[in-house]
UniProtKB/TrEMBL annotation:
Protein name (Swiss-Prot/TrEMBL): DNA mismatch repair protein
InterPro entries, sorted: DNA_mismatch_repair_MutS-lik_N (IPR007695), DNA_mismatch_repair_MutS/MSH (IPR017261), DNA_mismatch_repair_MutS_C (IPR000432), DNA_mismatch_repair_MutS_clamp (IPR007861), DNA_mismatch_repair_MutS_core (IPR007696), DNA_mismatch_repair_MutS_N (IPR016151), DNA_mismatch_repair_MutS_sf (IPR036187), MutS (IPR045076)
UniProt function note: Component of the post-replicative DNA mismatch repair system (MMR).
Entry GO CC: MutSalpha complex
Residue ranges of domain PWWP in the record: 39-88
GO biological process, one term: mismatch repair
């Protein structure tokens, strides 16, 4: 039974009552001011601070509670929807009567009037009818003992409040007063101004204003954010929290409200996470969880349909018929911008300064949830607040307008929840303190009230595709990448006669700052674009308005949610190539000047006379090409026109790609992320995997493979269930089976390897040799695995350290943002940095693990493995990082930095800090020497006295003061002493003060400089990551090979004498080890090309027609064959007794049935489109799998199309498995010299042609030669539990159809005989007789 909401969910919890008066009354009869009250009686009950409400007396739902009274309180159930209950003091319970009598006032509130009407209907009913009203609810925590109710003295007056209540003012537990008309008055927060300004939301981060700012909070005491109290734990652990939920403020958007439509662009529609599948969110400590419990609504905090509307819903300019963007364009206008909103000036002028600020920001980010900083809280208003209550479980604040909030430290948790559900979140920070605001207003002269509010700016906009996991965000548990994709399209050129289009794409993984830019042509089926979307899943797509074809739009819409598809204006937002290059050239992203320690590092290496080639080898560094003062990354340089020496013109074949990059940069700039991502200079050129080094015609006929990678398009990845099964999960996928990786970056590399297996035998053999070497050293394998599992996500931590060490432009709002939790954030930055250092130290231990084996390098055969575990000085790829790590080990005290969140550099780390400290120490020594001279001068003990700027005053005893000459300036005195300053002391003090100021300046930026110094060696760290990720994937493949009976595949290079072939003996499905019934999986043999055929027989032919009964395993066999080939070329052992093949350049699949409704394609059209792509792109090196082509149309049409496709494939000669139930197709090609026949065997018991329901078929799941005589479709009908009568009727119909077809065939044969002049009459007669007998 669901736990019912208690009265606390609708009214504020009153302070604990005094329990001096104890004792229980008779549970069946209670005297109440001379009136007898019994169970199920109607009463008026009042909770302090709220109006009298009709209720029915009932027992508490607790297990041991059989009474409706407890400690001078009465348990009642209020008339409400849904019903609520609670304990009310006896003094605040009256027998039910008409409103206006017995001191019961009359209210106009609709909910109150409705409750009174419900009570009046039950007034004349009996106890049994009233008992039926009682909802039998599970008790909340503390039922029967929770002190709830009115004031301590039992007063019925609403005007007074208890002392306890006033003490809890910071928790927003104030009562709601009533207005003059007796109506419940709307509760409002009290705003305490921090200055004389009119601002309602000023923020001053100092101790003096902390108590004041709490009144501007979201109703939770600051102490609750840190104290791990018992009460808070109770609330977190309870299924139903007892946090108040205010019924009066439980408002929602009406289901059919027209205002709801105008807010549909705020965020995508998402399904709330169920308890079994909660949204991924950052991990938080138990203290934080308990702190945030006060902000979470109860599970019963649902939005009801009958609650009243919020005021913002009635704004005329928010209605669908009136809504406009900031440029006053209506949604019907072709240039309408759904991201913005027009807010009338007249409306803004009526708002408070803070709320005007909010609406101005909302008008620029209408589709985004605004986390609006006020003091130490992020506040949500209006439509954002309603969303926060619905999606985050926040409590609605008191007041006329929708308003919710949470503390600053909870940003990561709440933002991650919304982002996971597909919303966009904007973090808006205060970039000014009240003092700064006052100074600004004074400079302005005539500042208006709207100027007298602290400035706030958007510091970051985050979506699924723009997550960077900064110090404000929580830790990420999702290891997979999210991409932001920009795409534009150029249609086919006129008169080309070829239906091809050209795409420009650019995409970025914001968590690692890796950009890809590319441009390519595509066929009419968008094969390459589908492959890109499958290999690099996009969580958000930017498209150029009016440039995409209908077909491309349909594909994009089926890939991402409409709310995460951004349409950008050409040139203004979706920049041209020239505009993109000009922006990058003007910005600080690829400047030739070095930052911070980079210049010193280059100078030091120059002094040591190191050669550039050696530096590049050790750092694994790609050079940047300098053009016009810009150090363009090499990949980007290749896209520039060589004729433009300024580097601002793109090559023609790269214009679309760079234009898409411009769209990415524009959007990242809107998200305030472009600087931290572009300055990493990680840019790669995207080339489709099916790009040929030679012409396509040459590739189709060449005996050698020209590609480096096998092509697995989106359709193949889906049909083979590489990453996702048919249900959308990962269970049973190849990725799940192979993923034994220990690190997040290893898992990401494994996915990239699976998307593009190798084609060149040399590379495949190197991986296979590495797996073989690791299999022979199991102890080393285990030690390395243990160390790898201890590594954090170094790839993303490097991105964090880069951002934390970046000297941002002053224009970035985060440089001005004011945070309350700076110490915590600094501590988190230090922890991330130390995690990186410790992680790289662990990589050295991994290298040492392999070195510990005696002469291991001599026993290793794989150059790939050697390069991963050997340092650069010994010819490997692992860089020398000992010196770097030793420097940062001694650069500062790690334990002190971790605990205090600040870095104090060691000597020799920072020149400015060292100079300041040296000056301070030397000056103090001079002061001590000067003090000794003064002691000698005065002939007595003289001490320094004072602090801060009045330090080092000479404190001289009175008896020696007569020796003070004119150079001694008397500053003050006390009994028995006088204090002096001299010119020399003041000079030295000024030196100390200046040095201390320089030291403090150095300390404020020291952490950033150390992070930046670490980031200067980013190429070294990336090389380490590359080595460790490759090692991790190789170990994962080794683990897989050890879990099953696997064999080393033999990859044979093709040449003129070796034609493409595939030979697998006793092959098993890589992802299935047993059948559904628990039996072992049946191994099968496959031979295609060279010596081919089924069952291991010789016969030749690369084309095999596969037949067999329904559910006999044909599709599984085909998938198994493709997966085994993929594994072999991935560099893994395969589950078989033998596997030999020539490399496969591409796997094509036409498996299963599905339509694409969003793209307007039927099942049959999808089949033909996929088949068309096969015929256009397949080569003799391809592997083609086609399952039951033609079943989506009439049998004759399907057979004809299948026959034509078979003939086309025989011409192309790829290795092909073609399954079919068209036995006429089998008859037509049974004797073809390039075709072999095979079928999935089965055993039939009790075969009965008259009644197929009596047959019992046992599937043998064994692939054997020859064709299957029947498909045994009625057996599948029997297994599907079709009525036996239906099956028999179908069998009879099948026989009649067979006879009809036989007669037609006989008629055609007889007609052919009659027209054959070579056939004599007697012979023709004999043939007629034979045909008639056959029909009988």
């Amino acid at each position: 039974m669901a736990k019912q909401a208690s009265i606390y969910n609708f009214f504020t919890k009153s302070p604990a009552a005094n329990n001096n008066n104890s004792g229980n009354n008779d549970k069946n009869n209670l005297k109440l001011k001379g009136t007898s009250v019994c169970e199920f009686d109607l009463v008026w009950a009042k909770l302090e601070g709220y109006p009298w409400w009709p209720a029915v007396v009932c027992s508490s739902p607790g297990e041991n509670n059989t009474s409706f009274t407890h400690k001078n309180k009465i348990h009642v159930q209020f008339f409400d929807t849904p019903p609520t209950r609670g304990w009310v003091k006896e003094t605040l319970v009256k027998s039910f009567c008409a409103p206006g009598n017995k001191g019961i006032p009359t209210y106009k509130d609709t909910n109150w009037v409705k409750a009174v009407k419900q009570a009046q209907k039950m007034e004349g009913s009996g106890s049994e009818d009233r008992e039926a009203l009682i909802v039998h609810m599970l008790p909340t925590d503390g039922d029967g003992s929770e002190d709830v109710g009115g004031s301590e003295d039992g007063s019925e007056d609403d005007g007074g409040g208890s002392e306890d209540e006033s003490d809890n003012s910071k928790e927003n537990k104030r009562r709601t007063p009533e207005n003059k008309n007796g109506e419940p008055k709307n509760k409002r927060r009290r705003i305490i101004l921090c200055s004389d300004s009119e601002s309602e939301d000023d923020y001053k981060p100092d101790k003096e204003s902390e108590s004041e700012d709490e009144s501007v909070s979201s109703g939770v005491d600051e102490n609750q954010l840190t104290d791990n109290s018992h009460e808070t734990h109770s609330e977190m652990d309870s299924p139903v929290k007892e946090t108040p939920k205010f019924k009066k403020f439980k408002k929602s958007l009406p289901e059919k409200s027209p205002s709801l439509k105008c807010l549909s662009s705020v965020a995508k529609s998402s399904v709330s996470a169920s308890p079994s599948n909660p949204p991924s969110s950052p991990k938080v400590s138990s203290v934080t969880k308990s702190s945030l419990a006060a902000f979470a609504a109860t599970k019963e905090a649902v939005v009801t349909e009958d609650s009243e509307d919020w005021p913002y819903l009635h704004n005329p300019w928010l209605q669908p018929d009136n809504i406009k963007d900031r440029d006053h364009k209506r949604p019907t206008h072709p240039d309408y911008n759904k991201r913005t909103l027009h807010v009338p000036d007249a409306f803004l002028n009526k708002q408070t300064p803070g709320m005007r600020q909010w609406w101005e920001l909302k008008s620029r980010h209408f589709d985004t949830v605004l986390f609006f900083k006020m003091g130490k809280f992020y506040e949500l208003f209006h439509m954002d607040a309603v969303l926060g209550v619905q999606e985050l479980g926040l409590l609605m604040m008191k007041g006329d307008n929708a308003h919710a909030g949470f503390p600053e430290i909870a940003y990561g948790r709440y933002s991650a929840t919304l982002i996971d559900k597909g919303y966009k979140v904007a973090r808006i920070e205060q970039t000014e303190t009240p003092d700064m605001m006052e100074k600004r207003c004074k400079k302005m002269g005539g500042a208006s009230k709207f100027d007298r509010v602290v400035r706030r700016e958007v510091c970051q906009v985050t979506t699924k595709a723009t997550r960077v996991y900064s110090f404000l965000d929580g830790d990420d548990a999702n290891t997979q990448t999210s991409h932001l994709l920009a795409i534009t399209e150029r249609g086919p050129s006129g008169g080309s006669g070829v239906d091809v289009c050209e795409f420009g794409v650019a995409f970025v993984d914001a968590s690692t700052a890796l950009f890809h830019v590319g441009q390519f042509t595509d066929d009419t089926h968008l094969s390459r674009l589908r492959t890109l979307l499958a290999h690099y899943p996009a969580d958000q797509v930017l498209v150029e308005r009016g440039k995409l074809s209908h077909k491309t739009n349909a594909l994009i819409n089926s890939t991402v949610s409409p709310s995460l598809k951004e349409t950008l204006m050409p040139d203004k937002e979706f920049w041209s190539a020239g505009k993109t290059l000009a922006f990058l050239a003007d910005g600080p992203y690829f400047n030739t000047h070095t930052d911070d320690g980079e210049k010193e590092e280059e100078e030091e290496e120059g002094k040591n006379g190191e050669k550039k080639k050696k530096k590049e080898r050790e750092n694994g560094e790609k050079k940047c090409i300098k053009t016009g003062g810009i150090a363009w990354p090499e990949e980007l340089k290749l896209m520039l026109d060589e004729g433009d020496h300024l580097g601002l013109t793109a090559r023609i074949e790269c214009e679309l790609g760079l234009s898409s990059l411009g769209a990415l940069v524009w959007y990242l700039q809107e998200c305030c992320l472009e600087e931290q991502l572009l300055t990493r200079r990680r840019l790669s050129r995207y080339l489709p995997k099916d790009t040929h080094t030679h012409t396509h015609a040459h590739a189709r006929t060449s005996s050698a493979i020209t590609r480096h990678y096998m092509v697995l398009d989106g359709i193949t990845l889906k049909n083979l269930e590489i990453f996702e099964n048919s249900s959308g999960g990962t269970e049973g996928t190849l990725m799940e089976r192979l993923d034994n990786c220990s690190t997040p970056f290893g898992k990401r590399l494994l996915r990239r390897w699976l998307c593009a297996p190798l084609c060149q035998p040399a590379g495949i053999h190197s991986r296979l040799q590495a797996v073989t070497d690791l299999r022979t050293h199991t102890d080393t394998l285990q030690q390395a695995t243990r160390l790898l599992k201890s590594l954090p996500d170094l790839e993303r931590i490097l991105a964090k350290v880069h951002t934390q060490g970046l000297k941002r432009q002053s224009t970035h709002p985060d440089t001005r943002a004011v945070f309350y939790e700076d110490i915590k954030y600094n501590r988190k930055k230090v922890v991330d940095f130390l995690a990186a250092l410790n992680g790289f130290k662990t990589t050295l231990e991994i290298i040492d693990t392999f070195k510990d084996i005696t002469d291991i390098i001599g026993t290793l055969t794989s150059n790939l493995l050697k390069s991963c575990i050997t340092t650069t000085d010994n010819g490997g790829n692992f860089p020398l990082i000992h010196k770097d790590l030793n420097f940062f080990d001694t650069a500062f005290n790690h334990n002190e930095a971790r605990s205090e969140g600040k870095i104090i550099p060691s000597r020799g780390v920072d020149v400015d800090y060292d100079a300041a400290v040296t000056t301070i120490n030397n000056t103090k020594l001079q002061l001590q020497d000067y003090l000794k001279l003064q002691c000698t001068h005065f002939g007595t003990k003289v001490e320094y006295w004072g602090n801060d700027k009045k330090r080092y005053q000479l404190q001289v005893p009175d008896h020696a003061c007569k020796k003070a000459t004119d150079e001694y300036e008397l500053t003050n005195q006390k009994k028995g002493y006088k204090r002096y300053w001299t010119t020399h002391i003041q000079t030295l003090l000024n030196v100390i003060l200046n040095a201390e100021q320089q030291r403090n300046i150095a300390l404020t930026d020291i952490a950033r400089r150390i992070f930046n110094q670490f980031d200067q060696s980013y190429k070294k760290w990336e090389s380490v990551l590359e080595c460790m990720s490759v090692l991790d994937v190789l170990i994962s493949l080794t683990r897989y090979s050890q879990q099953t009976n696997t064999v080393l595949p033999d990859i044979v290079n093709t040449h003129a004498d070796v034609q493409p072939f595939l030979e697998i003996k006793d092959g098993l499905h890589p992802c299935v080890t047993s059948t559904l019934s628990g039996d072992e999986f049946i191994p099968n043999d496959i031979r295609l090309g060279g010596v081919g055929g089924a069952g291991g027989s010789d016969g030749g032919g690369a084309f095999t027609l596969v037949t067999g009964p329904n559910m006999g395993g044909k599709s599984t066999l085909m998938r198994q064959t493709a997966l085994l080939c993929l594994l072999a070329q991935l560099g893994s052992y395969v589950p078989a007794s033998s596997c030999r093949l020539t490399p496969i350049d591409r796997v094509f699949t036409r498996l299963g049935t599905s339509d694409q409704i969003m793209q307007g394609q039927s099942t049959f059209l999808v089949e033909l489109a996929e088949t068309s792509s096969i015929l256009q792109h397949a080569t003799q090196h391809s592997l083609v799998l086609i399952d039951e082509l033609g079943r989506g149309t009439a049998s004759y049409d399907g057979t004809a199309i299948a026959s034509g496709v078979v003939e086309a494939l025989l011409t192309l000669a790829p290795r092909t498995l073609f399954s079919t139930h068209y036995h006429s197709l089998v008859d037509d090609f049974a004797n073809h010299h390039k075709v072999t026949l095979g079928h999935m065997a089965c055993m039939v018991e009790g075969e009965n042609e008259d009644d197929p329901t009596q047959e019992h078929i046992t599937f043998l799941y064994k692939f054997t030669e020859g064709a299957c005589p029947k498909s045994y479709g009625f057996n599948a009908a029997l297994l599907a539990d079709l009525p036996r009568a239906v099956i028999r009727a179908g069998s009879d119909k099948a026989k009649r159809l067979e006879k009809t077809n036989a007669r037609k065939h006989a008629f055609r044969k007889m007609f052919a005989l009659s027209n054959d002049n070579n056939v004599t009459r007697p012979k023709a007669l004999r043939e007629y007789i034979n045909i008639i007998k056959h029909l009988e």
